[in-house]
Design brief:
Distance between the termini: 30 Å
Number of domains: 1
Oligomer: single chain
Radius of gyration: 12 Å
Organism: Paraburkholderia panacisoli
Structural class: mainly alpha
Protein name: DNA-binding protein
Number of strands: 2
Strand order of the largest sheet: 1-2
Order of helices and strands: HEHHEH
Strand content: 5-15%
Length: 70
Amino acid sequence: MTNADSQTATYLDPYELAELLKLSPRAIILRAKNRPWLLPPRAELRDRELLRWRVDVVNTWVQTTGVALP
């Protein structure tokens, strides 16, 4: 990935990811802290406390894990 790609990437916050996966935002936050293997890989951002996921990574994760989206 080039630097230009990372600048234009679209990110999901916990609320958007929760809506996509049909989970509560609280479940997303708890899984990110306690069971991160149950979620797509997080985006590595400068602010380590900020929970974000790249849309393309989430889509790939959904396809490879077989998670059914509504």
